[in-house]
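Example 3.2
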Amino acid sequence: MLNNNQSPSMILKILWGALLASHFMYLFVLYTVNQSYEGEKGLEEPMLLPVMASGALCAWAAGFFLYKHFLATEKKKVRNPSQDEMASIYLTPMIVRLALFEAAAIMGFVPAFLSHDINYFLPPLLINIGLFAMNFPSEQRIKDAFLS
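Structure, written as tokens:
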């Protein structure tokens, strides 16, 4: 339940920032774990990387398709919503999208952590930074989501 002092668009921005920041926490964990590791780098299970990469691709795709599906379903329920109502309706589809993008990052984190090779995490990290930048919940983006 929303506090009366919190606008839905502000909540969206806070969630967006928190989920983006988690990527840098993953990077910090990988960096600190790998600093003290002196063993051999590499994956012991060769199928792990293709499985995780496939999972990341599926998570990114689901982030786009489920967002559109949930937003279309919610838009049908209202007529001429106010800015706050638009942001409230936009909240759930956007959280689902960002969570799925986060899942894709975790698919890169796992092989990077297990192999002690941070390079496995960099592609999903960079892709997600771009996707998060493209999905910043500005007032205009929320309005555009309802006009399309």
